[in-house]
Specification:
It contains 7 helices and 26 strands. The chain is of the alpha+beta class. Strands 14, 15, 16, 17, 18, 19, 20, 21, 22, 23, 24, 25 and 26 form a 13-stranded mixed beta sheet that branches. Helix 6 packs antiparallel against helix 7.
Length: about 475
């Protein structure tokens, strides 16, 4: 990667974003300080040294720490300058680039995949698609598919740097000629071995937040999702392992549909502001080793599995001094069916933890009490029958059914009420009874005394987000 910096301005917002993308996608980098001709000659060298130190400091905590920094003026005097003006520092830059380049290992096996960046017709020949082969190989006579259009064509001829060839492999830059195809249908995109790529409407990704992005990553928020060679709008839902598995080692490039996952209102990070953390400001935020997101695209995308995914807020003001890149990850599972909500998502076992609280109103007998304030008047209490609850005094209970029409309910206590609990509830009932016979002031005072130490009822259960039956599950 070559990061070009205007030496008179230094790192700008877009330069910083390029650096972030480099961190994600590249292994080597050369920094080029351009436009040195705009610096006064007497102060040029000191200004270059000063900017070089600034860039070294900027790169200190990145994978590019210690990378080469070269000062140049690619076009001294600007675009209007005469051609006789020689570039400054470009020969040195070429030497640095030659010292940094390496020959990557190429693998001709696997499915053919090519990124097309230009498409045009040649009269009497056909349509030529030019680009770089990302994986596999291609030969004359092979069938190739344009997956975004669901069109398959036979390779009529191929050229590499104006030289006819019969074979090309991973890493090659090639032009492929096919017949009876309108070049206006494809400006850029992917071509591949037939049926090796799929068009998807949603995906599960593993992801990491980009540390320079300010603010929280909220579930249900929309981001610009760059996946494969497309950028589309998409809505996200974040989820993590169950709390007991937060520290478990997880394969980042695979997803286990047999496991349960915990729904998150936002991506969990050290600056997380979730409701659980708000309750206890002193509590340290527990961060799982791995987190995932469900991406739902506004329009379908075509991409290979395990491809890089980047989420951004590209609608943010470009002049604002803030990073627009929010997260990056790996696509683990795509959903091809347009009706994935019904056919696929029920397999994804993401659950929400639910916690309801009510109060014991009175004792019926040693083994049952009446509760209130746990349900609304219109709630169908019958669906909660059989669920376990816990009293604040320690007893375990089971919801037995509704009581009356106002949302009250009956709780069975299998092991019976403790004597202290029964006494506490009996005293509270008597106070209410006395207050009912007295005036309003006494009733208010009685309510205050009663509410000072009520016996609360806790109902805990989990519900799977994509369970069409909305079942309540208790361990």
């Amino acid at each position: 990667m070559m990061l070009v910096i205007d030496v008179t301005k230094g790192m700008q917002t877009q330069s910083a974003e390029c650096l972030v993308i480099g961190q994600i996608a590249c292994q080597k980098m050369v920094v080029v300080l351009n436009k040195i001709d705009l610096l006064p000659e007497g102060k040029r060298q000191s200004a270059i040294e000063k900017m070089t130190k600034k860039m070294q400091k900027t790169l200190e905590n990145t994978k590019f720490c210690g990378c080469p920094i070269v000062a140049v003026a690619a076009k001294p005097g600007g675009p209007e300058a005469p051609e006789s003006e020689n570039p400054l520092g470009v020969s040195e830059l070429i030497e640095v680039l030659k010292s940094q380049v390496y020959l990557p290992s190429r693998d001709p096996s696997g499915q053919f995949l090519m990124a097309v960046d230009h498409c045009f017709s040649i009269k009497g020949q056909g349509t030529v698609m030019t680009g770089t082969i990302l994986s596999g190989s291609v030969s004359l006579g092979d069938n190739v598919e344009i997956p975004a259009l669901k069109v398959t064509k036979k390779v009529k001829s191929m050229q590499m740097f104006h030289t006819p060839v019969t074979y090309a492999m991973q890493g090659d830059r090639v032009g492929i000629c096919v017949t009876q195809f309108d070049p206006k249908l494809l400006e850029r995109g992917l071509i591949c071995t037939p049926e090796s790529l799929h068009t998807i409407h949603a995906a599960i990704i593993s992801l990491k937040k980009i540390q320079y992005f300010r603010g929280a990553l909220q579930t249900k928020a929309k981001f610009h999702i760059t996946v494969g060679h497309e950028t589309v709008m998409g809505r996200v839902m974040f989820f993590s392992p169950a709390p007991a598995d937060f520290n478990e080692d997880i394969n980042e490039n695979a997803f286990d549909f047999d496991k349960d996952y915990l729904y998150q209102e936002e991506y969990l990070s050290k600056d997380s502001n979730s409701s659980e953390n708000k309750e206890n400001d002193q509590a340290e935020v527990q961060i799982p080793r791995q987190q995932w997101a469900l991406l739902e695209f506004e329009k379908p995308v075509t991409c290979p599995k395990l491809c890089l995914v980047i989420g951004s807020k590209l609608d943010t003001d470009i002049h604002a001094n803030t990073c627009r890149l929010a997260f990056h990850g790996v696509l683990l599972q795509g959903m091809e069916d347009k009706n994935y909500m019904e056919t696929f998502l029920p397999k994804l076992k993401v659950y929400k933890l639910k916690h309801k609280e009510g109060q014991v109103e009175r004792v019926m007998d040693d083994y049952s009490v009446i509760g209130r304030s746990l349900f609304k008047k219109e709630t169908n209490i019958q669906i909660f029958v059989g669920l376990k609850v816990k009293l604040s005094t320690g007893e375990d209970g089971i919801i037995d059914g509704g009581f009356g029409q106002s949302g009250k309910f009956k709780i069975r206590i299998p092991d019976g009420l403790k004597p202290d609990t029964k006494m506490l509830l009996t005293v509270a009932s008597k106070k209410k009874s006395k207050a009912g016979k007295g005036d309003t002031t006494k009733e208010d005072e009685s309510s205050k005394n009663d509410s000072a130490q009520p016996v609360t009822i806790s109902l805990l259960f989990k519900r799977y987000v994509f369970d069409t039956q909305k079942k309540m599950i208790q361990s």
